[in-house]
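[Solved] Which block belongs to which protein?

Original post:
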Amino acid sequence: MNINTEKNDKYTKYARKYPAIAAMLLPSMALTHYLYNLEIFKELFKQISDSWEFVILFIPSALIFSSIGYLARDFFRSISKILFQYPLFKEDETCMPTTDLLIYKKSSYSSTYIDKIMNHIEKDLGLKLKRKEEQSLNETEARKEIANAVQLIRNKTRGDKILLQYNIEFGFCRNLMGGLAVSLIFTILLIISSIVQGIPCNMQTIFMIIEIIVFILAYIFLKYRGRAYARQLFTAYLTTKK
C-alpha cells in the first residue's frame, strides 16, 4: 500500500470516524433511558430484570447512533469547520496559528527564527514574504501571503509522522465538536419529549451537561492542538530533506 494512502487511512480512522462515533455515545445512552421509562417497554419487559432491560435497549440504540456517526462523519466535519474552525481561524486561514507564528507582533517565535523560516521559504518555494516593517504597513496582505505559503509547506511535509499525529489530534478535536453539536440536538429533543410525556428526564439532562462539558474541553484542546501543530509544521519544514 502507498505510504500516503496509509497515512490518509490513519487520519480518516482517528480524526474522522472515531470522533463521529464517540460523539454519538451519549445520545445513545440518553435514548436508552428515554425508552426505559416508556410504559410500552415496561410492559414488554416486565418479566425481565432492570439491568437486562437496560442492556437490551442500549444495544440497538448504540448501534443506531454509531451508524449515524459513521455515515455522517463528513457531515460532522463540515459542521465543525463552518461553525467553529472558520469563525476561530477564518476560512482563508489568515488567522490560523500557522499564520500567526510568522506575524512578528503575534508570534511566540523570536524575530531571528521567523527570519530563518522566511529565508527558507524564499529559497525553497521562491516566495518572498513581508518582513517586520512591511507587515506593520499591510498586515492583511502579509497574512494572505503566509497562508498561501503554508499550503505549499503542508505538501512538503506530508511524510512527517510526528506532524501527522499532531494533525490527527487537531482533526479529532474539531470533528468531535461537530458531532457533539448534533448529539446535543438529539439529547435536547429527547428531554423535550420526556417533559411532554411526563416521564423522568434527569438522566438525559445529565448526559446533556456532560456533552456540553466535553464540547468545551474539545474547544480548548482545539486551540491548543492548533498551536502545537503549527509549531511542529515549521519544525518539520526546516528539517525536511529536499
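(Second protein starts here: sequence line, then its C-alpha cells.)
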Amino acid sequence: MTQHTPGPWTLTFRAGAWLIQAAGRVVAQIVAHDAEDEASARLIALAPEMAELLRKVVEIADGKAVHRTLEDDARAFLARLEVT
C-alpha cells in the first residue's frame, strides 16, 4: 500500500494559490479561481484526518473497539470541512 505524507497538513494562501503543506514541503497546490478552489483545497488538507476518522469507523464496525468520542470527532471534522 502506498503511504501518503504524514499529517497534519496545513492550508495557506500565497500568490493566488492554495498551498497544502506537510513536514515543511508542499504536498499540493491549487490555483485560486473561485470559492470552489478553496473548498477543494480545504478538503485535500484534511485528508490525513479524514483517513484516521474512517479508520476509527472501520475499527468499530469490526467490533474491535468502542470509541465514545467518535461522534464528537466526526462533528468537529465536519465543522472544519464545512467552513464558509
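Accepted answer:
You had them paired correctly. Confirming on the second one: The chain has three helices and three strands.
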